[in-house]
Each structure stands twice: as C-alpha cells, then as structure tokens.
Amino acid sequence: MQSPFILSLNKPVGMTSYDVIRDIKRNMPWKYDKVGHFGTLDPFACGVLMLGFNGASRLNDLIHEYMPKTYLAIGKLGVTTDSGDRTGKIIATDESPYFFNELSRLPKVFIQEKLKEKFVGDYLQAPPIYSAAKYQGKPLHEWAREGIEIKKEAVLRHIYSLEVVKYAHPYLCIRVTVGSGTYIRVLFQDCAEYFGTHGTLIGLVRESVGHVNIKNALVQKDWPKGKMDQSFDLKKLMRPSEVLSFEKIELKESELKRFLNGNPVDLPHLKKGEIYKWIIRDDKELGLAKIKEGKLQPFINFSQNFSP
C-alpha cells in the first residue's frame, strides 16, 4: 500500500503551478499514484505550493477551509492593468494632483489603520476576469482571451490580518492572511480604490499555508532530480496529519472494519465540537472520519485494500 504524503515546494517566479507538477512527476524517484496541488500560484508569483500524492490531494477542500494563506504583496499605485498584475496591459493611469501631492505624503501607519478598518473581517470580492473561476464550465481567463469579459457576482471572503510592510510612493507592500478563494490582485486593487486611485500587483509571495511556511519549503535546486536520485531527504515528505492537525484515533478491530467498509462507527464518548479525526493503525493513516451525531462517518478512505 502506498501511503499518502504531501510535499511543500517554493515555486519560483516564471513557472506555472502545472509546470511544477510536471517537473516533479518527471523526476520523482519513488512510485506514486495521482498527484495534485493545493492552490494555484500565478507564474509571476512565488512561494509555498503544496503537492499531494497517493490520494492526499483529496484533502484539498479541507486545506483551503482550515489553513489560511499568508501573502507578501507588492503593488504599484496609480496604474491599472487588464489582468490586475504586472503581466497585463496598462488600461488606466492616475495623473491627478491628488495622486502626486496628497497620496504620496500619507504616512504608512495611517494607510495601515484605514486598510485594516476597511478590509479585515468579512469582505465581498468578485473574481477577476483573468482567473480560474469558471463560467459555463470554462475558466474566465479563457473567455477573456477570446475577447469576452465575464463579470461574476461578488462572494464573501475573509481577511484575517493586514499589515502595511512598506510604503514608498507609488509602491505599497502589504502582508495579508486570507481565507479560501481570496484573490490578492483584486484585494490590492480594492485597497488602491479605497484611497482614490488605481493599483496593480507587481510581485507576490505566498509565505505560508497555515503552519506550512516558506522557510521549510523546498527551493528548486533541492527538488528531486530524477528516477535514480537517492539523495532526496525523505524527511521532507509530510504526512497528511502533519498538515491538517486533527486528533488521531485508533479503532478496535470491529470498528476499523466498519470504517474501512464505508459504515459509520458509533462512539458515544466523542467530545462535542470535534469535527474530524484521523483513523490510524500501526502508525499509518488509513483515512479521515467526520463526526456527526456521536458517530464517526467515513469521509476519506486512503486504504481500500487494507486488511486488518
């Protein structure tokens, strides 16, 4: 049985998220089943990109739900591009006296105070026209490249924290921690508009996903180098329970059989408020159970072929 595992990489600028997957698939020295990533990073961005192997990618929705992402975003005020970042075409600039004479003199502390006041907490945001959000089954960026702009309704997102790291007019650098589905390009544009000007992103670093930090993510030179590469440090592989820190539980033989066969397990002693538990046996993660009405409901089964 192949165990699920997660690998955290530091995606370099210039590669797409799928470029990274192709590179790793081509050079991975161990046998594995399917591989997928947890959250796309645009080519102009860099930072934490986690890949899930052997069924670990099925945890995608939970990682988005339970692990907020922290970004360092560098943008330029006074200019707007059609994509919302530096790769797009400039469609508007701000040449007003306000932009040059007043906005340029605002102190960093004042900008941070106002942005926190406005954006931290629940926040309505519409996806940009150049995004992977879909309309009629096709990503918006594909519609946009065909000359069709699809505008979707704003959706409620959540901003956990916002810090102005540096302000040197017209450049603004912010660090934000956000919930699932938040587009940093759009957030930066909205921050600029709140101060009466345009804004576009010129650099983006995903510093962390939950507790998975860029400091521990593998830089490209340390990625697996080929099928025969025996130098890769296996300690860099993360078990799913190291990423999603739910409590582990070991079931009795009869209970385990019920779980592996897709049946709920009655455990009346379960604590209220708990949502998920890892099901383990011999230190192997066999799956994830969702707690409902005092029972463990099978949620993800990693080991359909496991025989206790």
CATH class of the largest domain: Alpha Beta
> Span from first to last CA?
13 Å
Overall number of structural domains: 3
| Oligomeric state of the chains present here | single chain
CATH-defined superfamily of the largest domain:
Pseudouridine synthase
Which topology of the largest domain does CATH recognise? Pseudouridine synthase
The major β-sheet equals: 9 strands, mixed
Find the count of extended strands (DSSP E, 2+ residues): 18
CATH architectural arrangement of the largest domain: 2-Layer Sandwich
Q: What level of helicity do the residues show?
A: 10-25%
Low-confidence stretches: 131-136, 139-144
Structural class designation:
alpha+beta
Q: Over all CA atoms, what is the radius of gyration? A: 22 Å
Spell the H/E element sequence.
EHEEHEEEHHEEEHEEHEEHEHEEEE
Describe this structure in words.
The chain has 308 residues and is an alpha+beta fold. The protein has three domains: 5-66 and 212-240, 2-Layer Sandwich (Alpha-Beta Plaits), CATH 3.30.70; 69-209, Pseudouridine synthase (2-Layer Sandwich), CATH 3.30.2350; 246-301, PUA domain (Archaeosine Trna-guanine Transglycosylase, Chain: A, domain 4, Roll), CATH 2.30.130. Helix content is 21%, strand content 34%. It has eight helices and 18 strands. Strands 1, 2, 3, 4, 7, 10, 11, 12 and 13 form a nine-stranded mixed beta sheet that branches. The longest helix has 12 residues, at 108-119. Residues 131-136 and 139-144 have low confidence and may be disordered.
